[in-house]
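User: Design a sequence. Structure:
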C-alpha cells in the first residue's frame, strides 16, 4: 500500500476533557477551553502538514446549551476570537472554514462573523476545517427528513425519483452534504461514546479513544492517531 493511501481523507475529533484539564490545575473550566483553542490550532497545522483534506471538530453540541450561561458565553466568545485571530493564518495555509449545525440558535453577530469567515475562505482548497457548532446527529437526521418531506410536497412531478432515493440521495439533505464521511473519529479524555455526533456519517468510521485530555492533544498526538489509523483493516462489511 502506498504511504499516502493510509492518510485518512477526513479526520473528525470529539474534543473532550477541557474542564478536567483545568480542574487538575485548580482553575475554572473556561481556562481549559482557552487552552483547547491551542490544540485546535496545532491539529489544524498537523492536518495541513500530513495531507489530511478534511478536519472536523465537535466544538459545541445541541446538549451543551444546557451548560451554565457563563460557560456557554465564554465558549461563544472563544469561537469569535479564534475566527478573528486565525483568519490570516487560514488564508496563508489554504484552509477553507465551515461551520455546520443548528445556526438558527446562534446569535446574529456570531452568524455574521461565520458567514464572513466562510466567504473569505471559500476558494481555499488545501484543507477544509469544519466546526460543528450547536450540532447533534439526531437533529441533523431530523432536519434532513423535514427538508425531504418539504421537497416531496412541493415537487409531486418528482415522486418516482423520491421513491427510488437511496442512502446517498438522503445524505444530500444532511448538513454535511458534499463532505466525505469521516474515515477516523478520535475522542479524547477516555470517554468511549459518540454523544449524538455524526450518527449517520459515522457508519463506517474507524474510532480511536485516547485518555489524553483535549488541551494536551497536540501535533504529536495527531500524528500518532494517523499512525494508528494506518494499521487498521477497513472492510466495509466485505471479506478481504
Ligand atoms: C469538551 O470539554 C469541550 C468542549 C465542550 C468545547 C470545545 C471548545 C473549544 C476547544 C474552544 C473553541 C473551539 C474552537 C473551534 C475555536 P469538557 O468541557 O466537556 O471537559 P470535561 O469533560 O472535562 O468537563
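Assistant: Done.
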Amino acid at each position: 500500500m502506498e504511504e499516502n493511501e493510509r492518510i485518512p481523507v477526513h479526520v473528525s475529533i470529539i474534543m473532550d476533557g477541557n474542564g478536567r484539564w483545568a480542574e487538575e490545575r485548580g482553575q475554572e473550566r473556561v481556562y481549559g477551553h482557552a487552552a483547547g483553542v491551542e490544540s485546535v490550532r496545532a491539529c489544524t497545522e498537523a492536518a495541513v502538514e500530513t495531507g489530511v483534506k478534511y478536519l472536523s471538530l465537535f466544538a459545541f453540541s445541541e446538549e451543551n446549551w444546557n451548560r451554565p450561561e457563563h460557560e456557554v458565553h465564554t465558549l461563544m466568545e472563544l469561537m469569535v476570537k479564534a475566527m478573528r485571530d486565525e483568519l490570516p493564518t487560514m488564508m496563508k495555509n489554504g484552509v477553507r472554514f465551515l461551520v455546520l449545525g443548528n445556526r438558527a440558535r446562534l446569535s446574529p453577530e456570531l452568524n455574521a462573523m461565520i458567514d464572513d469567515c466562510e466567504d473569505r475562505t471559500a476558494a481555499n482548497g488545501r484543507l477544509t476545517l469544519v466546526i460543528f457548532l450547536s450540532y447533534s446527529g439526531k437533529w441533523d437526521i431530523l432536519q434532513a427528513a423535514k427538508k425531504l418531506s418539504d421537497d416531496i410536497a412541493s415537487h409531486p412531478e418528482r415522486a418516482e425519483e423520491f421513491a427510488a432515493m437511496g442512502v446517498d440521495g438522503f445524505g444530500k439533505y444532511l448538513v454535511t452534504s458534499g463532505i466525505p464521511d469521516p474515515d477516523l473519529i478520535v475522542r479524547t479524555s477516555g470517554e468511549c461514546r459518540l454523544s449524538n455526533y455524526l450518527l449517520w456519517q459515522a457508519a463506517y468510521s474507524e474510532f480511536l479513544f485516547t485518555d489524553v485530555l483535549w488541551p494536551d492533544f497536540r501535533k504529536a498526538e495527531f500524528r500518532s492517531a494517523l499512525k494508528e489509523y494506518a494499521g487498521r483493516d477497513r472492510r466495509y462489511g466485505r471479506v478481504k
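The domain at 10-136+183-229 is CATH 3.40.1180.10 (Undecaprenyl pyrophosphate synthetase). The chain has eight helices and six strands.
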